[in-house]
Write a structure and sequence with these properties.
This protein is an alpha+beta fold. It has two domains: 113 residues, no CATH class; 172 residues, L-fuculose-1-phosphate Aldolase (3-Layer(aba) Sandwich), CATH 3.40.225. It contains twelve helices and nine strands. It has a seven-stranded mixed beta sheet, with helices on both faces. The chain is elongated, with a radius of gyration of 28 Å.
């Protein structure tokens, strides 16, 4: 794990300080005055002056960095800019370079997993897509542990396999839903999980979740298990409302079954008893992956 602040400290800061020290020296600053202006030791300034500090070509060649160095050096030398203002100006540039720019690129090179998040990325934004997505994936992992650690869960997996999914708060498509790639299968009595949760890998269960949301249900997670009348009865006995739907309905069957139902529990069940070429399935939907996983685990405690 490598923080973007480490990129700032290791790559940007030595380059920026050495460039600024050089500019100040060109404007007649003594080594001591440079040290005071930059808030560093004279020995550090000496290292900058003698090329003993590694500099990053990416920042050396960036016009914005060059322009800021010249502006700060000019301001400090004339007294028009205080060290505090110089710091603020540098901080502004650093934050800009972190937003899908040079620092973000170097961060991706150090942490390749970040590259899967498209667009401008702010690791400091508490509402960033990255943070929200990782929290969703973490939630799916927690729910998955609840399921796979429960004795007997494999017996609830249907022939088509199970999946546990959770979506982003404003999900409007399958790419906004995280699930298990390849589904969860029963292999000789053991629930087998092919890989870590990813976005856009579930079509079936994700579609059910999105349809429920389309019908006005405030749910963000779903899991599918085998259908059995006793399974549905047990879920209802545990306080989870159950709604049957027709898989052959001409319109979206989940949306049709749930539309107008304002009395459903926070975690509820939709199920179908099968049709020609369609396996009977039960879906548990709720506020997050751990919640629906706990509802399923409750079946195994009976």
């Amino acid at each position: 794990m490598r923080f973007i602040e480490e990129i700032v400290v290791d790559a940007f800061l030595p380059t920026f300080r050495s460039m600024l020290a050089e500019e100040l020296r060109d404007r007649g600053f003594t080594q001591r005055e440079v040290a005071e202006a930059l808030g560093i030791s004279q020995s550090a300034v000496s290292k900058y002056a003698h090329g003993e500090v590694s500099r990053n070509e990416v920042f050396l060649e960036d016009e914005r960095v060059e322009e800021l160095v010249e502006r700060i050096a000019e301001g400090l030398s004339t007294g028009d800019m205080t060290p505090v203002q110089a710091l603020v100006e540098a901080e502004v540039l650093v934050r800009r370079l972190e937003e899908g720019d040079l620092l973000a690129t170097l961060h991706e090179e150090a942490m390749p997993a970040l590259a899967e998040y498209d667009g401008a990325l702010s690791v400091h934004d508490p509402d960033s897509t990255l943070r929200t997505a990782e929290r969703v994936r973490s939630s799916v992992r927690r729910g998955l542990r609840t399921l796979t650690n429960a004795s007997g869960f494999a017996g609830l997996i249907p022939n088509v396999g199970s999946n546990l999914v959770e979506c982003l708060p404003d999900a409007d498509g399958i790419d906004d839903v995280a699930g298990i790639p390849g589904r969860i299968f029963d292999v000789k009595g053991q629930a087998t999980v092919p890989g870590d949760p990813e976005f856009g890998v579930s079509e079936h269960v994700a579609s059910v979740l999105l349809s429920a949301r389309e019908a006005g249900r405030d749910v963000r997670a779903a899991v599918n298990i085998r259908y059995d009348p006793d399974v549905v009865s047990s879920l209802e006995a545990a306080g989870h409302d159950a709604v049957e739907f027709d898989p052959d309905a001409p319109e979206d069957p989940i949306t049709a079954a749930l539309s107008g139902r304002a009395d459903l529990s926070d975690t509820f069940v939709v199920y179908q008893t099968g049709a020609y070429g369609i396996e009977a399935i039960t879906y548990v939907l709720g506020p997050d992956a751990p919640a629906v996983a706990r509802a399923v685990r409750g079946l195994l405690a009976d």
